[in-house]
Every structure is written in structure tokens, then in C-alpha cells.
């Protein structure tokens, strides 16, 4: 009986020494750009939005577009959470939207900005995709953790 008890205690001691590493899902910001349609030669405005936000203090979004068919002609700050966005040059592709709201983490969601594109006269009839992304380390919280 003593041998069985000693064996059980030894096994429990060995198991207690095994490190347990917890894994948690990373915080994720979800970005989107609105849908719209326009005729050749016309302008079209789309929203740039944060759809889920675990808490960020700075974000840089990149909007990729087909430069053969579209060109950025205007942008407007929507002031999500009363914090303005700033923009890169209209000629840049991807087009840059910077939102650095505060020295604290902001968790609000909604429209950060709108971007107006002109459909070039040389564009072919069809669908064109706008892709909004962020580069690595371009969205982070006040602890400087990448989101």
C-alpha cells in the first residue's frame, strides 16, 4: 500500500512540474471599405470603416485599387470618436489613411473616412476591387502591442 501511495505522489509531483502554456486568440481589428458603383467618367465615394476594435491608439490603413481604372480625387475625415484621420498623397497606390486617435486605447467602431475615386475615361466596364489592409506593426495599442 505504501508503494502505491508513493508512486501516486511521485506521478502527481512530476505532473505538477510540467509547465502549462496558455494560448489566447490575438486581438483583431476588422477593417472594411464600402461598396459602390459608378459609370465611366463619374466619381464614386466609399467609406473606410473599423468594424471590430479591441482597443487601439494608432492605425494606418492601406487602400489598394486598380490605377488603370480609378484615381483618388478626394478624401474626407469622418472623425470616428471625434478623432480625425490624416491622409497620404492622392497619387499614392495604395492610398494611405492614418487614424491616431489618442494616448489611450479607443474601442469605438464606425467610419473613419470616406475616399472619392474617379472612374477614368479609359476604364473598361467591369468590377474593380478596393482592398483595405494594414501593414505589419501599423495598428497597435497603448502598450505598443501589435493588433
Instruction: Please give the number of β-strands.
Output: 9
Structural class: mainly beta
Shape: elongated
- The radius of gyration over CA amounts to 24 Å
Give helix % range.
10-25%
The profile of the biggest β sheet is: 5 strands, antiparallel
Task: Write down the secondary-structure element order.
Answer: HEEEEEEEEE
* Residue runs with pLDDT of under 50 for 5 or more positions: 1-25
**How much β-strand is present in the residues?**
35-45%
**How far is the first residue's CA from the last residue's CA?**
55 Å
How many helical elements? 1
The oligomeric state of the chains shown is single chain
Overall pLDDT metric:
81
Could you describe the 3D structure shown?
It is a single chain. The protein has one helix at residues 2-17; strands at residues 30-33, 43-52, 58-64, 70-77, 85-87, 95-99, 110-119, 131-133, 139-140. Helices cover 11% and strands 35% of the residues. The N and C termini lie far apart (55 Å). The chain is built from one helix and nine strands; from the N terminus they run H-E-E-E-E-E-E-E-E-E. Strands 3, 5, 6, 8 and 9 form a five-stranded antiparallel β-sheet that branches. The chain is mainly β and 147 residues long. It is elongated, with a radius of gyration of 24 Å.
